[in-house]
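ESCALATION

Customer reports they have been waiting on this structure for their group meeting. Please prioritize. Original submission:
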Amino acid sequence: MTESTHAHVLSRRGVLTGVGVAGVAAGLAVASGLPAAASATHPTSPAAALASLLAGNARFRAGRSRHPHQGVADVRRLAAGQDPFAIVLGCADSRVSPEVLFDQGLGDIFDNRVAGNIVDDVVTGSIEYAVAEFAPPVLVVLGHERCGAVAATVETIESGGTPPGSIGALVEALRPAIEPVLHQPGDTVENGVRANVRYQVARLLAGSAIVRDAVAARTLRVVGARYDLDSAAVTLL
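Update from on-call: job pushed to the front of the queue and completed.
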């Protein structure tokens, strides 16, 4: 796609129709009789948003979670609309819930979760919608220690086997990230987890002009991170 084509698409935020992402969302809100947005006070800069997430993780791992924005009043407030300050692309693993490990609440994080925290066209579209509609200042691609999807990919590549069902599609999506680090020193799965986070960050930036433009405008920071299952700590990569 040429630069002029990119500019045309971005000027319309072209998804679904020429109305654009914001127009589609507003249309849905009108159709449902809801206002476009309602929010608590959220950090507005990339640095402040990332600091808020990491501070929440520090509270969580210290056993001092505040569980913010989780009351009945928050449910009622958010029924009118959402204004999340962060996007997280994380793994579907039941132990890695972003609101829990970052000590956030309803309306704070726009979650995208799939095994292996994989970027594909659907995930990219979901993230682009959030960037265009809510302008959150931080986007975190979050992998985690001993990821089962990464382990399955390592096992499949090393054994030459074929996973059952559609698990093979998951493995093939992860293969380009994992294969180059199979023979590096250290734990193979751990190397794969870290390599996959970096690969998915790069793929998201390469594949989304909407995300790239927000990053270039310094309204959005995209970071990769790893969650430690043993210590509950999130580390930026």
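Sent to customer with the following note: The longest strand covers residues 138-144.
Escalation resolved.
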